[in-house]
Amino acid sequence: MSQSGKSALVRLDKVNKSFGDQQVLHDIDLEVHSGEVVVLLGASGSGKSTICRCVNRLETIDSGTITVDGVPLPAEGRELAKLRAQVGMVFQSFNLFGHLKVLENLTLAPVRVAGVPRQQATERARELLARVGLADKADAYPAQLSGGQQQRVAIARALAMDPRLLLFDEPTSALDPEMIKEVLDVMVELAAEGMTMLVVTHEMGFARRAADRIVFLDQGRILETGTPQEFFEAPRTERARDFLSKILSH
Amino acid sequence: MPEGIREVLGPLGHGLVLTLAMTGLAFAGALVLGVLLAVCRISPVPPLRVLGTGYVTVFRNVPLLVLLVLFVFGLPDVGLLFSLFATVTLTMALYWAAFVCEVLRAGIRTVPFGQAEAARALGLTAGQSIRHIILPQALRSMVQPLAGVFIGLALSTSLAAAVGVAEMTGQAQFTTLKYDQPLTGFAATTVVYVLITLTSGLVAGRIEKRVAIHR
């Protein structure tokens, strides 16, 4: 994987951010290249979710730059909306639109934002639902689905915009254990198909199996970056060893 | 029909027309102004928020009767001459707009923040997000409170009698004095007011069912 700055799809350069008095990101430098799966690991409050949310500017940064495909993130407005349309996001709490059927959840943005004809958007939505194993739920409302099913719909909704990058903000943290697998299976499949992904998760199995690169954070700083093998077999920092011993001990 | 009842009911009919016209016009005005005020109150622009909050504080906390007297006798003093009916209807709209504003604001708050975030993340603009995601879900929780405002407004039109509008309650007072039939007039108006409020409650129930979230 080339690490030259030019080919980076997402690039964070000296990004700092505070919530009030508390600085949550310290000089973050991070690149995600096309086709790469980068997994952010770290304890709660380490800043991993904040990084994820800064990339599509759901959170603003205090200093530094974030570029997507070489273009700095624009301020809130039409330009930013255009950029967000190319960056899919999957949330911890699914956030499916409660008043719309599953199929309408998938077609809303393609029709309203991308200007895709409704017929075409509907066909594509049905394909995507079949792909996440929920072809029969097109006419259901989100509240009628299980958590795992809702999250798979949410992934399909993000894919419906043909994003160049998918952000996952703890996609399985709100799920019962038996539903985690069905969501991770879809994510592993996407990773194998070459989707560019930035994933915040506590699922070490997924990180090991699907990540090209692990980024380990602690208290708003990047402590380690490496392949899953490097990170899990031979963590370089005491903090990472401590983190892994706690998470992998049972 | 006993002597006197016809004489009582005739004027009440004329009064009812005014009552309904005042209710309809004032509610429409309160809705429009209430939406604008709600937009101000949730706006990211501080001066607009101050304006919205100030308006609601003033109009929600002064008795409607006081406002009616102030507007009916005060507006001509500053050179603004409207018909009595127009002035009273306008005052009602201004007063109830403050309540509509708060109903809308509370309704918008019932929509989880994640809904707007998901909409933004998909590339919807702020306007599209409000129109396609926030409002359709907020409206459901606004139906009954708005019906409450409508009922309050409909009943409060009776205060117009105090500043000389010959709406239903005003007519009841005249007939009481003229025919010495206090019970007939006020009993009849009570029945009509209750019919108006019960109907609006029924209509609200229908609307609420139609827009309910399917689960």
How do you describe this structure in short?
Chain A is of the alpha/beta class. Helix content of chain A is 37%, strand content 25%. The two termini of chain A are 33 Å apart.
Characterization of the model:
The complex is a heterodimer of chains A (about 250) and B (about 220). Chain A is built from nine helices and ten strands. With about 250 residues, chain A is an alpha/beta fold. In chain A, the strands form two sheets. Chain A has a six-stranded mixed sheet with strand order 6-7-8-3-9-10, sandwiched between helices. In chain A, strands 2-1-4-5 form a four-stranded antiparallel sheet, with helices on one face. In chain A, helix 3 crosses helix 4 (about 120-130) and helix 5 (about 145-160) runs parallel beside helix 6. Chain A starts with 7 loop residues before the first strand and ends with a helix. Chain B is mainly alpha-helical and about 220 residues long. Chain B has helices at about 5-40, 45-60, 65-75, 85-110, 115-120, 125-155, 170-180, 180-210. In chain B, helix 1 (about 5-40) packs antiparallel against helix 2, helix 1 runs parallel beside helix 8 and helix 7 packs antiparallel against helix 8. The longest helix of chain B is centred in the N-terminal third of the chain and has 38 residues, at about 5-40. The chains are: A alpha/beta (about 250), B mainly alpha (about 220). The interface of A and B includes residues 81, 88, 98, 109 and 141 of A.
Measured by DSSP, the beta-strand proportion of chain A falls in 25-35%
> Within the largest sheet of chain A, what's the order of strands?
6-7-8-3-9-10
Query: How far apart lie the N and C ends of chain B?
Result: 54 Å
Order of helices and strands of chain B: HHHHHHHH
Shape field of chain A:
globular
Helix content of chain B: over 70%
Rg of chain B, alpha carbons: 21 Å
Question: Into which percentage range does the β-strand content of chain B fall?
Answer: under 5%
Number of distinct helices of chain A = 9
